[in-house]
Design goal:
single chain; 112 residues; alpha/beta; Signal recognition particle alu RNA binding heterodimer, srp9/1; 2,3-Dihydroxybiphenyl 1,2-Dioxygenase, domain 1; 2 domains; four-stranded mixed sheet; 2 helices; 8 strands; globular
Length: 112
Amino acid sequence: MTVGLPCADIGRSLEWYRTVFGFVAPGIEPAPGVVEFKVGPIWLQLIAEPVLRNGAQPVVRFGVIDAEVERERLLRLGLPAGDLQQVEGVLEYFEFSDPDGNLLSMYAEVEP
């Protein structure tokens, strides 16, 4: 599976995603203005194109070991992150956005 996200400034977005997710390799560039990174079993594709919003917005969610730890890490980086939410006995998560307003989330399963 590949998930593509529009980026108004691909250079800014590449730096942001490298900082947030620790991508060290440059990724692959299958076409001009497109960069992809392998994230677990999927590819995250950053696409240099205008960011247009006109309705419901999808959320790209990333599974992590500890959502609270990841949220605190983002806050230490100076990035805004939403409150930690809990689905009792199932998972905890928080939401945040990339520089282009693409909605992202990190979640962790919890023991019942």
